[in-house]
Amino acid sequence: MRKRNDQARGAWLRQLKKLPWLILIPLGLYLPDLAAKNPQWIEENFSNGVYPHISGAIAFLTSFIKFSLAEFLLYALVLIVTFSLLSLLIGLIFRKVRVVQFVGFLLSLCVTAGVLLNVFYAVWGLNYARPALSASMNLNVHERPVGELKALSEELAEKAASLRAQVRENEKGVFYLPDGYESAFAEIPAAYEALNGDIHLFLSGATVAKPVYYSEGLSYAGLAGVYFPFTAEPNVNVGQPALLLISSAAHETAHYMGIAREDEANFMAYLACIHSDDPAIAYSGVMLALINCASKLYEADYAAYASLYASYSDGMKRDLADYNVYWDAFEGPVEEAVTEVNDNYLKFNNQENGVKSYGMMVDLLLAYANK
């Protein structure tokens, strides 16, 4: 009996040794606030210091894998944790597993979560604390009259119509990529290189975005793509229509380049796309900008929006209708839940407007147009 008690005591002591490691969780939760108080230090020492080397090294390793490693790592993680937890619970019920083993597993999960949280910020997340992109690009962002928004929207619509005439249509008269998304994704790094020749913002080149195998799952979640810092992979929902497929890849690539904020990543995706010689890539980028501007114009001046929409080419209207039909089919509780989680995640990382920050791209577009 005494030997058994000593063994039990020893087992509990081994698990209790994990407790100090739980400090990693509050440390990781504190990092965003700490970094936000030192944006210039983050810019100089992380974003333009160690980060390009970290992301470049990870991307070099994962680039040899042509599928999304991130996707399958997530599947494996969910399966392993779920199976282990269920096995321990069943064993606990039937007294095949001791309480100390179950508690030990939970502590290990918490420690692992703490480690991953800190690694997330160490390999990418600190980019959220960078100074605003408007400051880096010397853009004068401020409230502007509706007339400027109307003029910019009209300019984008004219440019989109011109590009739309140069791209391919499928049998339904909708824009598509006859060579598939792979060739378009492969051209995005060159577009970023051309962009960097103008703005000199990036210290390293872009990596090629990867398709998500189960893209339908992302569609149900209302996500066009996801950047996974642990593998430095821009992951793209390739189930979505071609209209914003390429600009979605450019958006996730912007995250890889160290642009963490969503509105800034959208803006950078637009700039990269219009620096491409491929009309399909440029069209996707211009339509991303136009959709954002038109949405704001709709709220500010409906008559001006109606006039703008009437100027769209028939091809543009078909593309937009096809795009809306696709995403409307996936609306539901899953999308609402993911949106809520994403909203809280963005706010936690000091994007005060949460998911609404996607619309702030228009402020950057207006400032860029006026520069």
Structural features, described:
The chain is built from 16 helices and three strands. It is mainly alpha-helical. It folds into two domains: 2-129, no CATH class; 133-370, no CATH class. Helix 1 (2-16) runs parallel beside helix 5 and helix 11 (262-274) packs across helix 16. The radius of gyration is 24 Å and the shape is globular.
Major β-sheet annotation: 3 strands, mixed
Query: Within the largest sheet, what's the order of strands?
Result: 1-3-2
**Helical run tally:** 16
User: What form results from the Cα inertia axes?
Assistant: globular
Average pLDDT confidence is 91
Count of all domains: 2
| Class of secondary structure makeup | mainly alpha
Binned strand content: under 5%
Rg estimate, integer Å: 24 Å
Q: Which residues sit in consecutive blocks of at least 5 with pLDDT less than 50?
A: none
N- and C-termini, Cα separation:
81 Å
Strand element count:
3
**Helicity level:** 55-70%
H and E string: HHHHHHHHEHEEHHHHHHH
Offer a few descriptive terms.
371 residues; mainly alpha; three-stranded mixed sheet; globular
In short:
The protein folds into two domains: 2-129, no CATH class; 133-370, no CATH class.
